[in-house]
Design a protein that fits this description.
CATH class of the largest domain in chain A: Mainly Alpha
Distance between the termini of chain A: 57 Å
Helix content of chain A: 55-70%
Shape of chain A: elongated
CATH superfamily of the largest domain in chain A: Tetracycline Repressor, domain 2
Structural class of chain A: mainly alpha
Strand content of chain A: under 5%
Oligomer: homodimer
CATH architecture of the largest domain in chain A: Orthogonal Bundle
Number of helices of chain A: 10
């Protein structure tokens, strides 16, 4: 059934909600619309309609459609980075922490599929400056994985012949890819998927001795 | 410098080229334009201009913009599938063949970055029927990896506690991801990247005995 061209915004009580709450609603609607239509084909009107606002009211929260995309992308990325940094800082040897970081990243991705898809597909729609702002963070992301692999090599737990950057990119690929195939309510929980992908990665990078200790 | 709004098509000699050659040129230009602008924002006029054709002449080769996208996506997918099926059929035990398939897939992706990006980002722009046609192939793709892991388990070469589907998706993620970070002329060749990602994957899935035999 085609969507009506224009819809009367449902504004009842809308303005009485706190500003932060309304802003979060707009962000969530924008994430969903960008995901469904793609950034280029999405109109601010679609987003306003989804949250029952007038299009002009969006400017109270965001400067432009581009600003909205930037906020969507940086929010999911910032949260994901916080998850893995927190796990990377927990006690344990570098391999244990890497395993924990991978599992956390997978769980976060499974629980933020739509925002992750928008991030991964629409980053290129941002102008260079804002893209760089995020790309800095992306490297920070990659840096957590790479740093732990570096440390594991330093402690003789990861293979010395491994290139830490390639290994980090391999792990990021294996785990980010989850956004393309995971569906809530499927055969495996996010925790089960996280544990399996983490084990595959740890087996890939560990020395035989470290491996025998971790998976006897 | 902004592009001129309309450009005089450079048609000199164009019509004298064989039909197949012109068709391939249109496909290549479409791949590039879809990559640069996104499918939604791309116009047939952009593609016609790029190959020095009149827009109307495109219909001699393709029915519509959607048909062009379908041809771009199915071509890169069909070729990639041919590469991995060929390698999967070579002599060797299932782990050796899996290693070879992974390396081949990475090399193919590195050499077809733009078309792979269009495939991965724009598949959802196709109508359900044509998407299903490709998705069938995507599962065929995944099936090659999964089938080899299944066989390796059957022969006691891959860990029995591994879920073959999750393992196949992990390998596909690690290897597909290359399209996001590989740049020609960088630190590593496609062959080096293929070999490293293959080793990481094989170590992830192999039994300790198979691993000791493969990487003594």
């Amino acid at each position: 059934m085609p969507q009506p061209e224009s819809r009367t915004p449902q504004r009842s009580g809308a303005e009485r909600k706190p500003r932060d709450e309304r802003r979060a609603e707009v962000l969530e609607a924008a994430t969903q619309i960008f995901y469904e239509k793609g950034y280029e084909a999405s109109a601010l009107r679609d987003i306003a309609d989804r949250v029952g606002m007038l299009k002009g009211s969006l400017y109270y929260y965001f400067q432009s459609k581009e600003d909205l995309l930037f906020q969507v992308i940086s929010a999911v990325h910032r949260e994901g980075l916080a998850v893995i940094r927190e796990r990377a800082a927990l006690p344990g040897d570098p391999l244990q922490r890497l395993e924990n970081v991978i599992a956390g990243h997978v769980e976060h991705t499974c629980r933020n599929l739509v925002a992750t898809a928008v991030f991964l597909h629409e980053l290129s729609a941002l102008p260079t400056e804002r893209r760089q702002e995020i790309l800095g963070t992306e490297h920070a992301y990659q840096g957590v994985f790479r740093g732990l692999i570096d440390q594991a090599q330093g402690e003789g737990l990861a293979r010395a012949d491994l290139d830490p950057r390639l290994a980090a990119l391999s792990v990021l690929g294996s785990t980010n890819w989850v956004y393309r195939w995971y569906r809530p309510g499927g055969e495996f929980t996010p925790e089960q998927i996280g544990a399996q992908l983490a084990e595959l990665a740890i087996r890939g990078v560990a020395t035989p001795t470290a491996l025998a200790a971790r998976f006897p």
